[in-house]
Design brief:
The structure is a single chain. By secondary structure, the chain is α+β, with helices and mostly antiparallel strands. It is globular, with a radius of gyration of 20 Å. The chain is 31% helix and 26% strand. The chain has eight helices and 15 strands. Helix 6 runs antiparallel to helix 7. The chain has an eight-stranded mixed β-sheet with strand order 2-3-1-7-8-11-14-15. Strands 4-6-5 form a three-stranded antiparallel β-sheet. A two-stranded antiparallel ribbon has the order 9-10.
Length: 297
Amino acid sequence: MTRINRRRFLTIAAASAALPAGVALAATETATWSGVALGAPAQMKIVGMTDAQAAPIFAQVSAELDRLEGIFSLYRDSELTRLNRDGVLGTPSSEMLDVLELSAALNRASGGAFDASVQPLWLAKGGQGDVAAAKALVGWDAVSFDAEEVRFETPGMALTLNGVAQGYVTDRVVAILRDAGLTDVLMDMGEVAALGHRADGAAWVAGVSTPAGEIVERVQLSERALATSAPMATVLAGADAHIFGPDGAEGGVALASVSAPSAAVADGLSTALCLMDAKAGAAMVAQFEGAKIEALS
């Protein structure tokens, strides 16, 4: 099975401003955790804490990542895989409803270009089915959801939440770190999120890069997230881009990068921009408070 995985390495760098009373540490004291998160190698570092002091934070982040994967993953038993298998999901989690609500808002704002129901078409383009037959299974209007259930009106439909869920997970981890008293954080989970500032007081700086690794823009971030999408970063069956509309057509954008107060919003907008012309894309982004196009080519 071909996978989309923009999470080559999850990295969290943070500094603590809330050490326990009576504890004085050298500025070089750093706690480090390494493991696997969301199916990718992961590393977290917290400056100003010992490993023992940071262990509860590391454990909480790791547990939250595992819990959210149990909701959104396409590759393990999750709420999403059960929905795709059965066509209905009873009592969806609040997190699933959050992501579906955002997916619906992105679908409306993009004029239908962003459509999370493209999963059957994505599989077919990857060699697991007939493309023409898969197109008949795509259509966000046939997805209904509320606190009681999520349901597909067309048998055989399936969702992929890759265009939003990764950003949503980023937002959740940021919230954990903030609640733990970490004031200066830079995190890269495919989407980049920043709290506070660097040690010198300046804003964090994130680079927007092409799939080949060329930096095309540098963006200052503080209390914001940055998401970059590039259709040809991953190809299906060796030919097709991994970002396409509900009709299977690719857009004319090679790279789109958006910053926003929410990583989930930035994630979804950067994906949708790849499928829209510049004027329509700008109008879409303007509907989301605080969102900004940082690079488009």
